[in-house]
Design a protein that fits this description.
The complex is a heterodimer of chains A (306) and B (638).
Chain A: H1 2-33, H2 42-51, E1 55-58, H3 63-80, H4 97-118, H5 122-153, H6 158-161, H7 172-191, H8 210-213, H9 219-244, H10 253-277, H11 286-304
Helix pairs in contact in A: 1-9, 1-10, 2-9, 3-4, 3-9, 4-5, 5-7, 5-11, 7-9, 7-11, 9-10
Chain B: H1 2-24, E1 30-34, E2 43-47, H2 49-72, H3 83-101, H4 105-123, H5 130-161, H6 166-174, H7 180-198, H8 207-213, H9 216-241, H10 246-268, H11 273-300, H12 304-339, H13 350-353, H14 355-368, H15 375-393, H16 396-428, H17 445-463, H18 465-471, H19 473-480, H20 484-523, E3 528-531, H21 549-559, H22 561-564, E4 567-571, E5 582-586, H23 590-608, H24 618-637
Antiparallel strand pairs in B: 1-2, 4-5
Helix pairs in contact in B: 1-2, 1-3, 2-3, 2-9, 2-12, 2-17, 2-19, 3-4, 3-9, 4-5, 4-9, 5-6, 5-7, 5-8, 7-9, 8-9, 8-11, 9-11, 9-12, 10-11, 10-16, 11-12, 11-15, 11-16, 12-14, 12-15, 12-17, 12-19, 12-20, 14-16, 14-17, 15-16, 15-17, 16-21, 18-20, 19-20
The chains are: A mainly alpha (306), B mainly alpha (638).
Chain lengths: 306, 638
Amino acid sequence: MIALAVSLLHTLVALTLAPLLLGVINRTKAFFAGRHGQPLLQPYRDIAKLLGKGATYSRTTTWIFRAGPTVGLAAALAAAALVPFGRVAAPLAFAGDLVLLVALMGLMRFCTVLAALDTGSSFEGMGASREVAIAALAEPALLLGLAAVARDSGTLSLSTMFQHAAIDPTTHVGAAAALVVAALLVVFLAENARIPIDDPATHLELTMIHEVMVLDHGGPDLAFIQCGAAVKLWVLGALVVQAALPLPRATSPWLTDAAFVAGMLGLAVVTGIVESTMARVRLLRVPQLLVAAGALSAVALVLVAR
Amino acid sequence: MTRLGAGGALAGCALGLAGAFPALLGAAPTSVRLPWDVPGGAFYVELDALAAAFLVPIFVVCAAAAIYGAAYLRDRAADKALGPAWLFFDLLVAGMALVVIARNGVLFLVAWEVMSLSAYFLVTFDHEKESVRAAGWTYLIATHAGTAFLLVFFVLFGCEAGSLDFDRFAAASAAGALSPSTAGTLFALALVGFGTKAGLIPLHVWLPEAHPAAPSHVSAVMSGVMIKIGIYGLVRALTLLGAPPAWWGWTLVALGVSSGVCGVLFALAQHELKRLLAYHSVENIGIITMGLGLGVLGAASGSPALAALGYGGALLHGVNHALFKGLLFLSAGAVLHAAGTGEIERLGGLLRRMPRTGVAFLVGAVAITGLPPLNGFTSEFLVYLGALRGTTSLERGAALPSLAVIAAMALIAGLAAACFLKAFGVVFLGVPRSAHGERAHDPGRAMTAPMLALAAACAAIGLAAPLVVPALAPAVRVASGLPPAEIEATLAGAASSLWMVVGATLALAALAGALALLRRRLLRDRPVASAVTWDCGYAQPTPRMQYTASSFAQPLTSLFSALLGTRMRVTAPRGYFPREASLASETRDPWREGAYRPLYASVTELLSSLRWLQHGHIHLYILNIALTLIALLLWKLA
């Protein structure tokens, strides 16, 4: 019971901290651009402001458009309940929870895309089409990468599979871990619509992927979408950080928690650096990047299966 | 006539369900054996848990299809005699049920042909149309080619076992009477024969032709349950062949992966709703075959957990696919009925006009995509769990098929989501793209009730998954031949995971409800306006400017163009004031075009050299017969 309460508390902390990652990414980008940049807490203010607004709906839309952001955010929150917080197990931890995690993110995407198509807009159709293509290629990379970690640790739950003994980087298992981290990082960037796959800061509808799908949403619906995006950033980021950062087992829980949060903020800084120093790849090249990530995961799985 | 035909099917299905349910839950098998004056034949039937796992979906889907079909065919009564259609529908249901319980080779083949031939007459219901006749012809050739392999399978097995009864088959292989090469040959024969009925790539070419050509309630039965009879045959053959070697599992996994991935890719490239659904059946048969392959690998490598999860996932996915594919075909039929076309690019905005059909199709789409909380997720979860168990527990080489299954399942899930978002999004959302959809409306209760019942069944299996999965244990025991204790332990483990899944689902529903309340409360006293969809300020948007299904699928179809071979006919706009521009794409089946068409062309050419025998002179035919008779008599006397 106490363990469950601790897990739930950590999930709540994670949900509270999730928008902060966006703030850190934006500040990092501002630093690289030589600007002062927006306050770190700006994403929270944006969400609060949107929650306080009314809404405008397209006459083409149906209940699907109104339900999409709500169900999407609920799916993201349920996904957050499956992801461990450093050494602390997730509130819902069971053999095969990685499959449910991927399916819940699929459900979230399903809702976003349906809502986009409900507007009948060509722009949103175009974004939706690109989103599903990218997701279809990112999913094998994600699941194969997690399967490699599962094989190495011998367990099928996200909450236990990252917690095995520290990895020796000189062995083939260490090499496999590096490959998994690289693959998960690409999936993290692709699924969260970051450069080099998608540019969250673009202003031209034709070149957007994620942003264009939510063009017609406003008010509380858009707030829900932004919350969902922040939670998804945290969920996938947590997988990358835990695969990259084998937290020592026998230290105080406060220390591991602090190390994990520091890792998450570090990941946000890395994302900001990637966004500042890289150009977005051409849309036609995105599949190659994702297939390469899938190949890295597969190689990692073959390595750990030795 | 309709009342008799549909009512008879309904009564039979209800009666059958009452018998099949206890058997599914593990009641002792019951058998009847009556003498039959056919050489090698016996009227020998048995109802065990494996048969029941197929009988239950047969009866459920056929009952729904019968109710739906009665209304669906009503306005065809003016120009068509419906008697034959109902006769063959009832024969099809009876044939399928008899195949599943038959325990004698001759009886099995007779029931198999009753099923296959009645399906032919149902496919050619609209035989005035050239395309329907062609589809029926393709189906007839394919089904008989498959039966030919089964004939050899039973004769060869009968020669080894000394009888055509299935229990003698099983006894012969248990006693080690089959050499590995004979067993391998028998496995290959069964794989081709049953694989043709199931629609495994590359034996699937008849499926995307025949299923769309049939009336929609027949498509639901054919795609939902008839192709499962092929899977049933394969599983039954595996139980008769004894302990499997590992290469059978490898073969099944390889075929499953190729069917799954290619099936969904071809579905993505289709423009016609029922054809798209037919290709999805190929995909789902692929998933089932992957599960079977994992089960066989588990049995071959002495890993009961892998075997139980593989067989369990395959059997449950068979049931689930029957429910959601039946549901999808019935909803597609309602669209066809109301809008007069199944061409996706001509439809749009139907959710406003057909709200019930729209919800039914959406439920089917979520289920087939394998998203929680519906039943598609449950069975795919079992297959995933099996593959993950295989990856983590097996030796290096043996883990490779599991790895392939994980990669393929993940890719299929993404592609299936893309395909059903395309189908639902373009057909039901947005605004109508042509006059077809504008006057469409929901069909009457006789058609919506079966759809909603199947949708409810999809949700019920998804939400009751932790109770459903352990109930599969008797069927898995028959299929895998493993000790019951290990199967039950594995399935109980999976069920405990599924309790957590149900918990997460309920949490999701509660969160969604809370968020919806929050949203309503936030918007209550605020301005909520209506406007046009954002169009960059363009003055005159028209429905034709909406994104099309082909455009939606384009990133993926062009990525996999090497496999699909999509042909494009483009008239590019020319000059400063272009007058015309057009683009048409067509994706034909490369196996049909590249393999079967040349093969059948050369067969036709070869056999046409015998044309001189068919000259039409009857007196010469009689002479030929007489000469043959004399020759035979002389041979007998000598």
